[in-house]
Each structure stands twice: as C-alpha cells, then as structure tokens.
Amino acid sequence: MTTEKRNYEDASQHINFVLSQIKGEDMFRHLDCTAGEFWQILLWKDSFNYAGIPESNPDKMSLHFNVVDHLPSAIRNKFKMTVVRLLTEVLKENRRLDREES
Questions:
Q1: Which one-letter DSSP state was computed for residue 6?
Q2: Domain interval for residue 1
Q3: Is the pLDDT of residue 1 over 80?
Q4: Tens-digit pLDDT profile for residues 43-79
Q5: pTM given for the model
Q6: Are 29 and 66 in a shared domain?
Q7: Does residue 29 contact residue 20 with C-beta atoms inside 8 Å?
Q8: Where on the phi/psi map is residue 7: left (φ > 0), alpha (ψ -120 to 50), or beta?
Q9: Strand, coil or helix: 42
Q10: Cα(first)–Cα(last) distance of the chain, in Å?
C-alpha cells in the first residue's frame, strides 16, 4: 500500500489507521492484516520482480528480479545497473524535496 507519506513515522501511523478501519468492518473482522516491510522507495512489478530501499536497512538496495534470468546474459548486468541508477536518482530527488520542505 502506498501512503505518499514522506517519512516512516507518518507512513506507519497512516498504515495502522487504515488497518484499524478495515478490521473494524464486520465484513473483514476475521481478516488478519499487518504491515510487513516499509520502503523508502519501491519499484514493483510483482512478488518476484521488485527493487527498493527498505526502511529497515536504508543503506542497502534490495534487488529481486526473476525477469533477469530470462534476459540475454549480455544485458543482465546492464539491466541491474539501470535499476540501481533509477532508484539512486529517485532517492536523491526525495532527499532534495525533504530539504526544501524543512
């Protein structure tokens, strides 16, 4: 779930609020939902193909792309490096925006 919140505390509060609202509905009273991982940045295709910077370890990019196994070997590394550059640029822009808001 995306919150569009700029920091972990606000995102966590928002997620907890949404989950409490869902659990308060009779239709969902037997559903057990919890927040798994919070991400500073997440590029998502599906549960087998995603990359991002987890809030739990912001110094490490997490790359999980099953699709890489289906690419020609000559471009696999280039694909990974392109994703890393994209995430790095988004992170830089987010930090710039955070500085402007302060």
A1: S
A2: 1-36
A3: no
A4: 999 999 999 999 889 899 999 999 999 999 999 999 9
A5: 0.74
A6: no
A7: no
A8: beta
A9: strand
A10: 26
Same domain, 90 and 71: yes
**82 shares a domain with 59:** yes
Rounded CA separation 90/77 (Å): 20
Nearest in space to 7 (alpha carbons), one of 102, 88, 80, 75:
102
Residue 13 pLDDT > 80, yes or no?
Answer: yes
Rounded to an integer, what distance in angstroms lies between the CA atom of residue 30 and that of residue 26? Answer: 8
86 and 50 in one domain?
yes
Domain count, the chain: 2
Token pair belonging to 73: 């070997």
| Confidence bin at 101 (pLDDT 50/70/90) | confident
In the DSSP assignment, the letter for residue 89 is: H
